[in-house]
Each structure stands twice: as C-alpha cells, then as structure tokens.
Design goal:
This protein is an alpha/beta fold. It folds into two domains: 216 residues, P-loop containing nucleotide triphosphate hydrolases (Rossmann fold, 3-Layer(aba) Sandwich); 49 residues. 31% of the residues lie in helices and 29% in strands. The chain has ten helices and 14 strands. It has a six-stranded mixed beta sheet, with helices on both faces. α3 crosses α4. The radius of gyration is 21 Å and the shape is globular.
C-alpha cells in the first residue's frame, strides 16, 4: 500500500510553518524520518494518522484521499504516539482487550488475538500484571501491541525509543524489523541509532522541509573524508569544538580522545575514520542545511 504525500504544508496560529511543501513516496518496509526536535516530524505523523489536517497539499494512502476518506484510512493504520497513555489499573491483557474491541476485533477472536499480540511483543508472562507496574520498555511494547491489534497495513511510530535503556531500545528495534515485512512502518525519531539499525530508506526533515531523501549509505558517502579521531589536551577542547562537530569524547587522562566531523585543523594529529550514519547526519545538517545539531541518545 503506497503512501503518496504531495506538497504538504501545515501552518499554525501565529504564522508558525511546521511543514512546507513536503512531498514523499513511501513503500512497504521500514521508512525512517529523521530530524532534530522541532523539524516537523510529529506534525507530519499526526497528519498521516488523520489526527490533524494539513493547511494545503494532500496525502493518498493506498489511493485513499486523507481529506475525504479518513474513515477508510483509519481502518488500515496503527499509531503509537510519542506520549502513549494506558489505564494504569488495567492489566496488560485487559487493556489490549479494550483496545481490540474499539478496533472492531470480533468477540469470538478477541481472546486469542490478545494472547497472540502479547506473545508477539514479549509480554505474555506479564499479561496479568497491572500496567502501572510495567517498565518504560514494557509500556512501549504494549503500545506496539495496541497499534497492531487491528492488523493494520500502515504503522506509524513517533519517537519510539525515547527514555528506554539500551537493552530495551535494541529489543524494540528488533521487534519493529520483524513486523515490517508486509507493512509500511514509518519510524519518526531524532535518535540516529534508531534509523541506522532498522531502515533502508529515509528522509531528513529540517525546518519543516525535506532536506534529504534516499538510502542511508548514500548519505554516509557524503561524509567520506570528513570524520577524524584525534587525541588532545583538555585545554584544546573548546578550540576544536568551535570549528568541528564533536561526535564523542573519551577521557584518556590527561588527554581526551575525540571523534569529530569537519575539515581537519592544522597542528593536530588527526586520523581519518570511516563515517557512520550519525557522522553523516551531523555533517549533512551543518554543511547542507546550515544547522548544527546535537545528537541525543534518549
């Protein structure tokens, strides 16, 4: 079920342009939407989920017009927002049963469907625990289960790993990959690692516009010859950080080992490194968008 986004714009009160002439075509599989906070990612996700209407432009989801066929579109999508709420006094199974009824799962199949969804997301053993006792990672997995219980062909997940510990983040990424074979999954995030681990197709939003669309490898190639490792005295850190983007800092007393992106600075022993997607994203945002961003991990 292809998604065709055509010249989509959204302007809020006060003249705030959240989206400006966004056009994208998205096919089956994992699609990554990357960009700093405030880039317009959540606004685009809400429009695709029929929770907001665009100021101009259109979206067609499997041919259905988002303006005039919202009911049809809603029947085919699942949505996990950035801030996902549950009824804390319900158990995981009770909450999922409630969502299943709202999504029209037939009563004769509801019990087995709930058990299968909980099994799929690794919550079968916790099905009778109240949701208020779940960890952050368990709640995100319950969120995926509620988004999938109606068997949607389109799944939209907004900032899905924010606040998760590294183990839960990996588990969540693997879960999304497993279920993406016959669905479109749109993963919106400001965390580069979420994209590099799961997506073969991505777009970068910056200031409400599509700044890049293509494969991660193509973006990475743009940063070739721009990534370096250098061992410095702590006193030199500010000098380098003002001229290059610092990706990581490892203390090596009395020195610092930096991974940096940009043009090398004379007078330092900079060793060239192969770029990864995080390097490439940071380089692209500064060199082609003119916006220096800080990579966040949660």
């Amino acid at each position: 079920m292809p998604i065709d986004i055509r010249q989509l714009s959204k302007t809020y009160a006060g003249g705030v342009h959240a989206l400006q002439n966004v056009s994208l075509n998205i096919a089956t599989g994992m699609f990554g939407l990357l960009g700093p906070n405030g880039a317009g990612k959540s606004t685009l996700m809400k429009i695709l989920a029929t929770l907001e209407t665009p100021t101009s432009g259109n979206v067609f989801i499997d041919g259905a017009d988002i303006h005039s066929q919202r009911r049809q579109i809603r029947a085919s999508l699942g949505y996990l927002p950035q801030f996902f709420g549950v009824y804390p006094q319900l158990t995981g199974a009770e909450f999922l049963s409630y969502i299943g009824r709202l999504n029209g799962v037939p009563a004769r199949r509801l019990h087995n469907t709930v058990l299968q969804m909980l099994e799929n997301v690794g919550l079968a053993e916790a099905r009778d625990r109240k949701a208020k006792t779940y960890s952050g990672g368990m709640l995100r997995r319950l969120g995926i289960a509620q988004a999938l219980i109606g068997n949607p062909r389109l799944l939209i997940v907004d900032e899905p790993t924010t606040g998760l510990d590294p183990e839960e983040r990996i588990r969540f990424r693997n879960l999304l990959t497993e279920i993406s074979r016959d669905k479109i999954i749109i993963l919106s995030t400001h965390i580069v690692g979420d994209i590099s681990s799961t997506c073969e197709d991505l777009a970068i939003l910056a200031k409400g516009r599509v700044a890049y669309r293509g494969q991660p490898d193509t973006l990475i190639a743009k940063a070739a010859g721009k990534v370096w490792q250098v061992l410095i005295d702590e006193a030199d850190f500010s000098h380098i950080a003002a001229r290059m983007q610092v990706i990581s800092t490892i203390p090596k007393q009395p020195h610092l080992l930096l991974r940096v992106v940009g043009d090398p600075i004379a007078g330092y022993d900079m060793q060239s490194l192969a770029p990864n997607l995080e390097d490439a994203y940071m380089h692209f945002m500064e060199s082609e968008v003119g916006q220096r961003v800080e990579e966040e991990t949660d």
